[in-house]
Amino acid sequence: MREYLVYDLPTRLFHWFFAGLFVTAFFIAKTIDDDSPIYVYHMLAGFMLCFLVILRLLWGFIGTKHARLFEFALHPKDLFSYFKGLVTGDKKLWAGHNPASSWSSIIMIFFAIGLGLTGYFMTSGTNKEDFEDIHELFANGFIIVVILHIAGLIFHTFQHREMIALSMIDGKKSKVINADVIPSAKSNVAVIMILLVVGFGYYLLKNFSTQSKTLQFFGTSLQLGENEESEAADSINEKKETDKDEKIDKEIEVGDDSDED
Predict the structure, then answer these.
(1) Which of 83, 146, 176, 224 is the most buried (most CB within 10 A)?
(2) Residues 6+ apart with CB under 8 A from 97
């Protein structure tokens, strides 16, 4: 019976918000044309994802026992022992993040930061082409880690007969010693976290112009999509240049005919 509280509510909320925002951003980027008005929302979701990571890193230093980053099992020896145990049937369980989930969490956070930084540079006027390939590499690496994480979760569940996924819903596990149990779910902190995330989302929407597709981001103007007005002006200018070139060509042809006469 799962009755021992090990994950606080802010950690669990981060897990599901993080997953939801990445899936939203990735789905839009892969299925929606980049000239669609909807496409820019994959960038807004990306900015929210990075903001969420900042909150998680902060909570990783001041949060409860199993939320703290230094509690993650990141030693290579632990990771090797964990995978070996999955094959040999070793029943060692971890109160907090096991070595595989510890590594996948850190790697996904790294990819999320990389996506945020490259996305920022791509929209801030810096040469977009310089960061596009890196951005896509981070996104593809992220989804690979997600797939491996889910596969490992399923394998762990059957191998250890532990419904580990449910611990990210109610925060509870079984077979945990008293020293690993946290005294509170920190619901008050979770409320503050939700308010901060909602507030940041409101800030993004309030400062985003759907007409020009620009985001005023703390004093910096970010171009999230093609500006329709700019496109129209470019089209008019291009037409003017074409008409001008055609006129010059005709004048040259007329001049050549006169010379022949």
Answers:
(1) 224
(2) 66, 71, 72, 73, 105
| Cα 216 to Cα 204: distance, rounded to the nearest angstrom | 8
- What does the H/E/C string look like for 128-171? CHHHHHHHHHHHHHHHHHHHHHHHHHHHHHHHHCCCHHHHHHHC
- Kindly tell me the burial class for residue 248, based on how many C-beta atoms sit within 10 Å of its own C-beta (0-12, 13-18, 19 or more): exposed
Summarize pLDDT for 114-166 with one digit per residue, the tens: 999 999 999 887 777 788 999 999 999 999 999 999 998 888 888 777 788 88
Q: What angle do CA 178, 182, 186 make, to 5 degrees?
A: 165
Cα 229 to Cα 231: distance, rounded to the nearest angstrom: 5
Main-chain phi, psi angles of 36, to 5 degrees? -80, 145
Q: By C-alpha distance, which of 79, 67, 91, 69 is closest to 6?
A: 67
C-beta of residue 197 within 8 angstroms of C-beta of residue 21: no
Distance, in Å, from the CA atom of 129 to the CA atom of 125, rounded to the nearest integer, reads 11
CATH architecture of 4-226: Up-down Bundle (1.20)
Q: Angle between the 129-160 and 9-31 helix axes, to the nearest 10 degrees? A: 130
For position 68, what pLDDT does the model report? 94
Contact between 174 and 162 (Cβ < 8 Å) = yes
Taken as a whole, the chain contains a residue count of 261
Domain extents in the chain: 4-226, 227-261
Q: Diameter of the chain by CA atoms?
A: 106
pLDDT at 234: 43
Using 50 as the pLDDT threshold, list the residues of the chain that sit under it.
Answer: 229-237
